Amino acid sequence: MKGRVIITLDFDLAIGKVNLNEIVYQLKEIRNPLMLTILRKILETYDDLISERLSQTKIYPSKYRGGLGRHIRKGDPKEHFCRGRKIRKRGYRMEPRQFSTVFGEVKIPIRVAECVKCGGRYSPLLSALKIGRYARREVNFEHEVIESVIDTNYRRLIDGRSIDISLGGIHNIVVGSDIDTLLQEPVSVEGFSAFMADGTGVKQYKGRKGELRAVIGITKSGRLEPLGCFTNTPWTEVEQTIKERIKEKEQYNIPFVYDGEPGLDDFLANIAESQRCTWHGPRGLYHALWEDGIKKKESQPETDTIKQLIGIELPEGDYEILKEEDREQVKTRYEKSKAEIKELVQTFYNKGYRHGASYLEKLSDRIFTNVELWLKTGVIAPKTTSLLERLFRELGRRLKKIAWGWSDMGATNISKMIMIRQYSREKWEQYWRNKLGIKGYFNIHIESVEIS
Ligand SMILES: [Zn+2]
């Protein structure tokens, strides 16, 4: 159907007094109400046209009713669709249907049609627009709400448009989202130089403390790739979900980097090699020694020593053209460090530092994975969880503002959204394009603007 929108705008301009800002300001003020008025008019016209085609079956052959008049057969307990496509108009519902749109709230009068075949009553417009029985907003609006929630400025979105949506309402949008579908496709270890996982606390319903957990991959080019996000889920279950996404089932020469959380000791052990974060190592040792009653002043030299021993820098550049002696140098330093840590463990035991000794012993098993992999393959893989921590800082900053008191599902979904939007922008945009279903079925352009 072709149509034209004819707009008449009145204006009153004080000659010799008005400035540019005021003109722009007033135009900005009518932008949303103007769009809402146009939207309402287009929908009303569409509604008239649909009911015309459905009621005048003598004038319009059946091909004109394609895509129109779908409704559930009256009294069908299985809720099958009726094949009847002829209606009688039965006026309008008492209450117009209200929708939240990006332009603000719109009220649409709802025409009622009665199916001649089954006698069921329905709204041909809502069915043509593919609006469900309970939908109260359109997807552009949902998109904007979520974008502004992630940017933590949703108040500004709501205030300007007299839209009534609370944090609870936003929670419902987030919980009902199918963002999960984006973190399901298979991934290949080939593209990664490391995996990482960690958790952080979130405040949930009634001040209950929950734990948000995330798993990421670091691509060979150093980019963060979100793999999954979970709230109050045991690590074994998290691992199972991630494993199901990874194509390969055999061992690869890439590290799984973590900060020493016991539940992660054997995470993804079938495909990756555990690597303790070299940044967290010395800090963890300080805590372990503190548990043994060692004050910071006394433990400082020990943690400094550890920092020294594990801080093995790997020569950058092409492994193949490295001189044998460079490789030998790393190897010597690695062996020396390992031996010294072993001695230190013994010293700690001798001094009665039980916590410190066992911490260091466990640490030493997995702190040189990075070096061992390099000696074996020449690949320099990440050895700290710093990229993952940056992600958690980004999540934390936003969750603190919006997601306190949220359910597990709400916290999980909003975290996934933040991750994907931040690190997989292309996927994020595609996800919304799909949801909106933009297919070129409606086009509108400005033909001319004249002033009389
Ligand atoms: Zn029917």
Features:
452 residues; 2 domains; 5-stranded mixed β-sheet; 3-stranded antiparallel β-sheet; 14 helices; 10 strands; 14% strand; elongated
How would you characterize this protein structure?
The protein has 452 residues and is α+β, with helices and mostly antiparallel strands. It folds into two domains: 20-136, no CATH class; 185-413, no CATH class. Helix content is 44%, strand content 14%. The chain contains 14 helices and ten strands. The strands form three sheets. Strands 8-7-6-9-10 form a five-stranded mixed beta sheet, with helices on both faces. It has a three-stranded antiparallel beta sheet with strand order 1-4-5. It has a two-stranded antiparallel sheet with strand order 2-3. Helix 5 (167-175) crosses helix 13, helix 7 packs antiparallel against helix 8 (296-310) and helix 9 runs antiparallel to helix 10 (354-366). The longest helix is centred in the first third of the chain and has 36 residues, at 20-55. It is elongated and about 95 Å long. The protein binds zinc ion (ZN).
Question: Roughly how many Å is the radius of gyration?
Answer: 31 Å
Strand order of the largest sheet: 8-7-6-9-10
Distance between the termini: 29 Å
Q: What is the total number of structural domains?
A: 2
The ligands found in this model are: zinc ion
Residues in helices, as a percent range: 40-55%
The residue-averaged pLDDT reads 90
Estimated share of beta-strand residues: 5-15%
Tally the beta strands. Answer: 10
Major beta sheet summary: 5 strands, mixed
Q: Please tell me what the overall shape is.
A: elongated
The number of helices is 14
* Order of helix and strand elements from N to C terminus: HEEEEEHHHHEEEHEEHHHHHHHH
Computed structural class: alpha+beta
Low-confidence runs of at least 5 consecutive residues: none
